[in-house]
Amino acid sequence: MKLHILGPAFGLPSIDAECIAAVALVERYTQGSGQAWALVASHEAAADTRLPCLQVGDKTYSGFDRIAQHLIDEAGGAVPGLATDLTAQQQADATALMTFIKSEGQLLLDISLYVSFENYRNRTRSAFTKILPWYANFVVPPQRRNQARQRTQHLGVSSLDVDDFHEDVIDKPSSMQSEQQKKPFEHETEKHARRLLGRRDTVRTLLQQPEHAAAFRLNALADNLFEPLQDLLKNQSNLLGTDQPAIVDCLAFGYLSLMFYPKMPQNWLASTMRLRYQKLVYYLGSLRDTLRVDAHPDEALSAVSQSEKGAADLPWVSPQSFSPIAVLGYIGQCLFHQLPLPKSDAGLVHLPIRRPRSLVQRYFPALLGLTSTSLALLAFWSYKNLAWPHGEAVHFFGRRRLVDYGDAGATLSALGSLGLQMQQQQQQS
After folding, report:
1. What pLDDT does residue 47 have?
2. Are 123 and 262 in contact (CB under 8 A)?
3. Residue 30: inside a domain, yes or no?
4. What are the residue boundaries of the Mitochondrial outer membrane transport complex Sam37/metaxin N-terminal domain, all occurrences included (predicted)?
5. What three-state secondary structure class fits 262?
6. Please, where are the H alpha helices in 88-178?
7. DSSP assignments along 43-93, one per residue
8. In a domain, 260, yes or no
9. Span 30-82, pLDDT tens digits
10. Does residue 69 fall inside a structural domain?
């Protein structure tokens, strides 16, 4: 059993929330069942799958929900190490909570890790550089940032995205700039004028500034996620009130850990959680001690040496390597997706996860080559022995005869005819 995830970052097993949740889920499951498993730091997925991806023999289960359902089916409904004996009300609450955490938590992570230019440039981008091969570094981070921009476009926090500001405003001529795009320049001019005149900002003008307005929106978005979760934890240690963590707790750990533990330049998520939601911080620390999924990039990038030393807690294995042809194909697909054409699968480009090949797949190339060679030999034998007209003159149309080459040609033609007549007389006698 192999679990393919995005590589580790910030002391966590992955830079993706659902990948962290999948690691916690599979680790908890294998601790109770004693089943062996391996963890692969990757960025590839087949065209019909996405990370995290659990590979069990010839089958793959993509996404956190499908992985969790597979483990429940394998364990007969009772997953070892997890609270799965839930009542009907708890199951309904778990479904609602997982949907709520994914929708609200993904927006917060999009803003913190990707939309915020300071966080993306100083922390997120460098984290991807450590865990991705060189050719994927030019593809995966920009793709994920573009997707985060699209998901958070309606929230009105574009003032955090300095890179987007420079691309969309500075590079355009003044005649193409809308009135909304000119406001940041007017704001800067007004601020310099106030500084020269010695006037102070009032509360109203402070609230009208884009960075402060964005801060209020960010706090409201954080409250939308943190406040309901903390209300559930007032009188219980887990979200559903169970003694052991449930599947929804693994998912909550994946999202909350990426909000709290990374040390970002704009650390508003962790600060909000630390100052106003201390019960949630205690819950997160308790989950981290229980699940034991801490990681470091060196464990994934040098899995062989770490396993020899016995220093790695998670069962990392060496990432799979791809042939130059596969890498060139990957780069070609990336360039193709940059063309202004209708795209499917959100414009993602993937390399396939290698699966064990069956006997037919393994020997099919050799069988195909043997069959082609046999058919070619059979066609040559048929042409030489069946289709050739024996005893008759063969005429090649479009070619000149020997008699067309003057006296020498006529002499050679007569000699050939004489030899043919002598051969026929010998056969008759």
Report:
1. 44
2. yes
3. yes
4. 19-145
5. coil
6. 88-109, 117-119, 125-131, 140-151, 162-165
7. ----TT--SSEEEETTEEEESHHHHHHHHHHHTTT--TTS-----HHHHHH
8. yes
9. 887 778 899 988 876 444 458 899 988 888 898 999 999 999 888 887 777 78
10. yes
By residue count, the chain amounts to 429
Q: Name which of 14-18, 107-111, 226-230, 324-328 the model is least confident about.
A: 324-328
**What mean pLDDT do residues 372-386 have?**
76
Angle between helices 64-74 and 17-33 (to 10 degrees): 10
Convert 396-422 to b/e letters by CB count within 10 Å (16 or more is b).
eeeeeeeeeeeeeeeeeeeeeeeeeee
What integer pLDDT is reported at residue 403 of this predicted model? 54
**Residue 12, helix vs strand vs coil:** strand
Residue with tokens 């997925």: 45
Residue 181 lies inside a defined structural domain of this protein: no
Are the C-beta atoms of residues 299 and 314 closer than 8 Å to each other? Answer: yes
Is there a contact between 15 and 9 (Cβ–Cβ < 8 Å)? yes
How is residue 13 written in tokens? 């097993």
Range of the domain at 20: 2-171+202-337
Instruction: Record the tokens describing residue 16, joined without a space.
Output: 């993706």
For residue 322, give every residue at least 6 positions away whose Cβ sits within 8 Å of its Cβ, in sequence order, or none.
44, 330, 351
By three-state DSSP, how is residue 398 classified? coil
How many domains is the chain built from?
1
